[in-house]
Amino acid sequence: MKSQSSQMLLAADDPPPVQVINPQGRSPFLLLGDHAGNLVPGALQRFGLGAEDMRRHIAWDLGTADLGEALSAALDAMFIRQTYSRLVIDCNRDPDAADAMPAISDGTVIPANGSLSDADRLARVAAIHAPYQSAIGAELARRDVLGRATTLVSLHSFTPVMNGVSRPWHIGVLYSEGDTRFSTKLLDLLREEDDLCVGDNQPYAMDATDFTVPRHAFSSKRRYAEIEIRQDLLSTHMDIRAWATTIANHLTQVDADLVENQV
């Protein structure tokens, strides 16, 4: 494996770390995909893991890239997503956190992360994490200058079973500090669907481990929602289209209700 500290991590033939879908989107929603990609820079030579592991939930949030694109089309919304695996660097973690570049993930040893130097870690932050977060910040700043209200919608997915425990939820809404009115209203609306098992900060709570939404929404009091969908429910294009329709309808209704009530 080549040393990350002796050269730039991303070579000219590596894909850029950030992809922007529908940059001219007129929707008030800005869709985010912290874990949408599962690529590994060429310098890391597949990371010491096989292709099967790189397709597992440890490497990315399965289905979120396609869901984000479908939602982008349904809402006419911009979708900002990262390209590289969360095992290279987790863009929804503080880059200084130990689990930003985990040595073990769900029991699987990540060989390339076992003995990272400070220079190695900084190379990953500079090449992938910082550009992704900067792209989000720049777009929000651009909209703020134009006076465009924006609601952040961060898209994630979760494995049906974790540590031997089945997870019954179909979808979860995560929220914590800042302006939670959009998140909680979305949660209430989803719970009106009789065929959905909806998690309130389940299967994960939005806590100190989250980075993207807290960074860009909390202090600015920007509306937001972090959405988690169970991965087995995103396994086909038909599933993804159905979820995109459901979520788009609910997001639009919540936004209209808040505008109408001037909340």
UniProtKB/TrEMBL annotation:
Taxonomic classification: Bacteria, Pseudomonadati, Pseudomonadota, Alphaproteobacteria, Sphingomonadales
Protein name: N-formylglutamate amidohydrolase
UniProt keyword annotations, A-Z: Hydrolase
GO terms of molecular function: hydrolase activity
Entries under Pfam families matching the protein: FGase
